[in-house]
Amino acid sequence: MPKTAEGAPKPPVIVLVRPQLGENIGKAARAMLNFGLTELRLVAPRDGWPNPDAGPSAAGADIVIERAAVFETTAEAVADCAHVYATTVRRRNDTKPVVSPEEAAAEIHVATGRSALLFGAERSGLDIQDVSLARKILTVPINPEFSSLNLAQAVILCAYEWSKFETLEQPTVTDQLPPAPQEDLEGLIAHFEQMLEPKDYFFPESRADMTRRNLRNVLTGAGWNHLEVRTMRGVLTTLARKPR
User: Any signal peptide, and if so, which residues (predicted)?
Assistant: First the structure.
């Protein structure tokens, strides 16, 4: 989870400047919470705030929606932030440093003071005045023939890069069952051999040992858990039954 120890860097603030659709605000909030970000600031949302369309699109990210703060200007929204990044395409006359989401996340992680990521309206993005408030421009390499990212996609790119520096858990790892004990695997192997022996699977006899080793390697290399072993043995038992 985000660091809270005194003196440690705080997670960046996500600032949506003049967002248009409530559902897009909700999707951005969902993207934020997926990667541990909870502080959302809105600058002059077109349809006002709160917006009834934001909740359903947030898909459970209620904490972000409920705590969202509204400001009249971008300057007010980032007044307490020492590090402001404008997410936009670099213009020819810009002299500000340009960083990627990964570089920005690394900087924010070691920075002192609050950091903010600015995202512009769905159609027009950030204007020149908004960009002028930023210390750096944040952009990503993108297909020049189709350079259209929606608001939630832009937010999730930056939120994901921030999450790499945190201790968020990978659900597919934490939810994975441990491997089955060897005893269960031996039972599965024996079950296979019992069914295959009458079918001459281990014929000719001169290759029987190698065939058994290959079978064992296949069954032990899969990393079965105890539920998967039980399922496989149920399949074998069913296959051995005589048709009705």
Answer: none
